[in-house]
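Progress note, project year one: complex with S-adenosylmethionine.
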Amino acid sequence: MTPNAEIKKIVEEVGQDIIWRPLYDFERNKLSGGVGHDIDGIDPEFTELDFTGKTVCDLGCNLGHFTFYAHERGAKEVVGYDMEPKVIKGAKKLAALYNIEGVEFETCNFASEPATRTFDMGMLIDILGKINISNGFLIPILKGLESRSKSEMLLTFRPLYLVKRHFGMSEDEFLKLYPQAQIKNGFFSLLDFAQNFFAKKWKVTYLSKELPDDEQYKRTVHFIRKA
Ligand SMILES: C[S@@+](CC[C@H](N)C(=O)[O-])C[C@H]1O[C@@H](n2cnc3c(N)ncnc32)[C@H](O)[C@@H]1O
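Model obtained:
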């Protein structure tokens, strides 16, 4: 089978509905559109972020878009974790087809399984959203990230949510789920929540610039462990 036919087969086996980012064959033909918003990934202008020589984990890696990105940007070793075995199988095949060394993929629910190793940088790109938050997974996800990150954490998330509209629950129900959350005028600030959650040990060092019409999009937040 040709390499292009192999990538096509990966798309068929995984299913376009769960492939998050656009995927191309070796002739730049688009094989899958990707169901995610580009803008919910790491901001393209965020070039100062230094991956050089670092070990990185990509939590919720899907087919490895940002796993490969971190590797391209100079990371020494990148491990992508996802709980969906189909995407991990596909990501492993892609790494072999791209002939990339220093990238690995493992099936793992990082929010419920304990960390088996730690990395210089933990990435959590486009994982926190309405579904995970309203299902009560926010804290296990943040803990899963922190337990795997030695020095840096890179996240994208939407800074502000309307509790009733976005989570489909009353403010009381939300506060039962997250007693430490603060709601002001119906809004829950995930940015404040994450900053407070990590405040003891981590310092926020980067926040994306304002984007036009950005309320619905995720932004990039970078934490560095305090000395
Ligand atoms: C919205 S996609 C984002 C994928 C990727 N980070 C990106 O931005 O291209 C979410 C991915 O995270 C995975 N995921 C969500 N929660 C997870 C968890 N607790 N453990 C492992 N994988 C998870 C899903 O299976 C899915 O592949």
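The chain has a mean pLDDT of 93.
The longest helix spans residues 85-97.
No further modelling is planned for this target in the current period.
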